[in-house]
């Protein structure tokens, strides 16, 4: 779910910022009648970094809340955590739908998504940690290593974005989104399509392939994010779009963590 919002947000950002720049001077009258040129502060890569750290921090704090509740073993706390997780999941879905149609440039919306996802992640991570001790730390470390590994590959131009690369990642993203949507709808009717193995189960070959493919897609899609953020900063995108870049990176990290946690649980099941 997160990856869908991320790509739509960053793709829409380029179009939206271009339209905004084209129409910025409309309220000032035609050339020769303007008393003062419009001023717009451009975003920088540092702006995106600061906002990303803030969003990831908020997600982490929210995750600690439900993680502690579920891990405490108290039935009342676990029940409260369940309600918070349900609320967080609902808020996340609303933000995802919103981001499909419009880039997330409002910090309150971005934080709502991060906190909502954090509440869900914390409770689920506590359940996984109880079943597989150490898996949460391993998933967190792996997420950080993959992110900075992809950043290094992009920074040194070992991996570059291109029209073909974009088409492949975006096309695969739509396919993944469709697959996840079908799986969710089927599960609501009590149908198990067998796409994902239960934690601790014995994954089939198809389930291994899907888990690895999702994890690889999550990693390589960061290249699109890095390229879009760099392009936006170089071309003077309005500062508010730094939130769209930060939202995209945060959603990407969350999606990567979800898939690494699932993949590591498969190894534990072996």
From TrEMBL:
Coiled coil: none annotated. The keyword Transmembrane helix applies. Keywords: Membrane, Transmembrane, Transmembrane helix. The keyword Membrane applies. The chain crosses the membrane at residues 48-70, 82-101, 108-128, 134-156, 168-196, 208-229, 241-260. This is Uncharacterized membrane protein, YccA/Bax inhibitor family.
């Amino acid at each position: 779910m997160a990856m869908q919002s991320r790509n739509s947000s960053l793709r829409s950002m380029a179009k939206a910022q271009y339209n905004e720049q084209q129409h910025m001077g409309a309220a000032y009258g035609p050339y020769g009648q303007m008393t003062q040129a419009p001023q717009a502060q451009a975003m920088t890569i540092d702006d995106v970094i600061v906002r990303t750290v803030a969003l990831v921090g908020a997600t982490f704090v929210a995750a600690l809340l439900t993680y502690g509740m579920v891990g405490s073993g108290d039935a009342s706390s676990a029940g409260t955590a369940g309600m918070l997780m349900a609320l967080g999941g609902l808020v996340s879905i609303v933000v995802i739908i919103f981001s499909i149609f419009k880039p997330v440039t409002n910090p309150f919306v971005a934080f709502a998504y991060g906190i909502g996802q954090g509440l869900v992640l914390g409770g689920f991570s506590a359940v996984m940690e109880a079943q597989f001790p150490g898996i949460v730390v391993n998933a967190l470390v792996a997420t950080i290593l993959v992110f900075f590994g992809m950043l290094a590959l992009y920074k040194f131009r070992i991996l570059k974005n291109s029209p073909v690369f974009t088409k492949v990642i975006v096309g695969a993203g739509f396919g993944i989104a469709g697959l996840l949507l079908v799986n969710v709808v089927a599960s609501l009717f009590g149908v198990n399509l067998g796409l994902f193995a239960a934690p601790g189960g014995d994954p089939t070959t198809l389930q291994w392939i899907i888990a690895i493919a999702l994890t690889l897609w999550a990693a390589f899609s960061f290249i699109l994010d890095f390229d879009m953020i760099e392009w936006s900063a170089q071309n003077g995108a309005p500062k508010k779009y730094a939130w769209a870049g930060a939202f995209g990176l945060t959603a990407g990290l969350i999606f990567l963590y979800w898939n690494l946690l699932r993949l590591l649980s498969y190894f534990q099941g072996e």
